[in-house]
Amino acid sequence: xxxxxxxxxxxxxxxxxxxxxxxxxxxxxxxxxxxxxxxxxxxxxxxxxxxxxxxxxxxxxxxxxxxxxxxxxxxxxxxxxxxxxxxxxxxxxxxxxxxxxxxxxxxxxxxxxxxxxxxxxxxxxxxxxxxxxxxxxxxxxxxxxxxxxxxxxxxxxxxxxxxxxxxxxxxxxxxxxxxxxxxxxxxxxxxxxxxxxxxxxxxxxxxxxxxxxxxxxxxxxxxxxxxxxxxxxxxxxxxxxxxxxxxxxxxxxxxxxxxxxxxxxxxxxxxxxxxxxxxxxxxxxxxxxxxxxxxxxxxxxxxxxxxxxxxxxxxxxxxxxxxxxxxxxxxxxxxxxxxxxx
Amino acid sequence: xxxxxxxxxxxxxxxxxxxxxxxxxxxxxxxxxxxxxxxxxxxxxxxxxxxxxxxxxxxxxxxxxxxxxxxxxxxxxxxxxxxxxxxxxxxxxxxxxxxxxxxxxxxxxxxxxxxxxxxxxxxxxxxxxxxxxxxxxxxxxxxxxxxxxxxxxxxxxxxxxxxxxxxxxxxxxxxxxxxxxxxxxxxxxxxxxxxxxxxxxxxxxxxxxxxxxxxxxxxxxxxxxxxxxxxxxxxxxxxxxxxxxxxxxxxxxxxxxxxxxxxxxxxxxxxxxxxxxxxxxxxxxxxxxxxxxxxxxxxxxxxxxxxxxxxxxxxxxxxxxxxxxxxxxxxxxxxxxxxxxx
Lengths: 342, 342
Prior knowledge:
The structure is a homodimer.
Chain A (H helix, E strand, L loop, with lengths): L7 E6 L8 H9 L4 E6 L14 H7 L3 E4 L10 H12 L3 E4 L9 H10 L3 E3 L18 E7 L6 H14 L4 E4 L3 H7 L13 H8 L8 E4 L11 H11 L3 E6 L17 H12 L7 E7 L6 H15 L3 E2 L1 H4 L2 H11 L6
Parallel strand pairs in A: 1-2, 1-3, 3-4, 4-5, 6-8, 6-9, 7-8, 9-10, 10-11
Helix pairs in contact in A: 1-6, 3-4, 7-8
C-alpha cells in the first residue's frame, strides 16, 4: 500500500450515533493536525468537534483524501453516500475507507477512480502480497502491544508510547496493524485480513530492519487467550521479534469479548505466555509495562488498581489516558543502556 | 467446497522426477481403490505404479475426476498441459488440482468448465467463507496431529489412525487441512490459505458437532515452534478443541524446515506447549502418543529411538509406517471409557 495522502476530510455519512463514527473519532484524536474538517449528511448523529466542511471548501483548504471512518448501516454503501463519494473523486480527492465492504468492489466508484486517476484505500483489505516469515533477526528495536483480550486499548497505548518517545527525542515509529491505526499512520497492514501462512511475514514487512536505536512501536491485535483470534496474535509476536512487550488490560470486562464462556486470563499468566512465545524469535524479549484502560472504574478505584498491579508484577502500570505512559518509557530508556531487563 | 467425485485418474504431466509427483503419490498410497490409473505425458519421469491410461480409457472405466497431483515447472501451466485438461473437460471429467496457481484463473479452463458444466477444485484455495471461531464446545471427540516441525508426517500419522480406528469398528473420520489430504479425503480446508481472522472458525467448520463417540482425526499443519507458521498451528489447536493430541517428530532434522537458525524443540517442551494452548478450548486435552518418522534412521537405531522416546515421555511412540499406530489407538480406547488420561 502506498501512503495515504493528508490532509483529511472526515466523512461521517449518516452515522446513527457517536459509536458508529468510532474510527473517525480515533483518527481525529490522534491526528488533529491533519483532520481539517468533517462532512456530515442529513440524519448524522455523530460529531467529531471538527469544522463542518463541504467538499468544495475542503478542496480550497488543501485536503487530499476523504476518509470514510464510519460504520455504514446494514453493510451496504447507500445510494446517498455514493453520490458524495463520486463527487469527491471528481473534485480530485483520494478515498480511504475502514469499511468491511470494499470501495474497489463498487463498480461505479472503482471505474470513476480509475478514470480520474484517484486512489482507493480499503485499509481493512491488504492488496500487496507478502513473503512467508523468515525469522531472521533484523537490526532495530521493536515493541509490541499484547493483551489479555481484544479491544483493551492496544492501539491507544502504542500511539501514546510513540508520542512520548518522540517527545523525548527518541527515534520511534508507530506501526499500524488495524484499520483505525492505518488511517492514523497513513499506512500499515490489517494483519487479521492477511492469508494465514503470511501473518508473521506481513509483520516482518511492516517493521523492517532499521537503525540499531530506532524503535518500531507495533500495534497489537487480539490475544493469545482469545479462542477466535489467537493465531493472529501469535503470528504478530513471532514476526515482530519484539525486544519489549507491553501488556494491555481492561479490568471490568466480565468475559473475553464475544465469548461468554471464556474468562479473562490473569495478567501474570498472560505476560508469561506472551514472553514464552515471543522468545522463539527474540530470546531477549521482556515485558516493560502494563497499560490499563481504567475508564470503567471511578478515579480512586482506578488508582488503587494501578498501584496494586504495578506492585504485583513489579512493572510500571499506567492508564495511558489518565496518566500517560512516561513510567514505561523511563523503563525502556533505562533498559536501553544495556539489555532490557524486566 | 463440495465433495470431489471419485474414481480418479492421476495426471502426472511432465513431472521431472518422482518428488514432483509427491502429492499424487500420497493420494495413490492412501486411496488405491479410487486411483484407477495414471496419465503421463512425454518427458514424465514419475511413476505411481498405476496402469497408464488415456482419457478415453478412463472414461470407459468410470473415472469422474482428473487429479493434478504434480508440481508444475516454473509455476505456470504449460500449453501442453492445457490441451490435456481441455480435452478432459470436454470428455466430462471434473478437474481437481493441488497447484499453487489456480485452474480457475486460467480463462481457457474456467470458460470451458463453465460451458461444459464441470467443476474445478483448486484445493489449496478455499472458496467458501467461514465464521469467526466461536469457541463453543461441541459434541463428538477430536484428535489433532501436532508437530515439532512442518512436514514431519502429521498427515501420514492421522490417516494411519483413521484406518486403524475404522478397522477396530470405531467411528472415525480423517479431516484434511492441506492439499494432499483434501485430494485423499475428497474434501477439507487448506487452513494455511484461510484469512487469518478465520483460522479457528474454519477448523470448527471442518470438524462440526457429531455423535458423542465419534472421532474426527484432524490433520495438523506447521508447528507452534515454527517462526513462519505458528499462527496457523495455534488457530488449528483452538478450533479443533482437541480431546487428544499426537505429537509428530522427525529425529534427523538439523534445524526447523527452512529456518537454519532455529533448532528443533525438545519433544517434551513441544508436548507441554501444545497442551497448554489446546486447554484454552478443551481443558481435558491430553497427549496420547508420539508418531516418529524414522525413515532417516537404520532399523536398529529407529527401534532404540522409539523405545527411549516412549520411556522418556511415558507415551506410546511408534513409526506409523514401520510399526503402525495400534499402541496409540489402544491408549485412545483405554482412555475413552473414562476421561482420556495421559
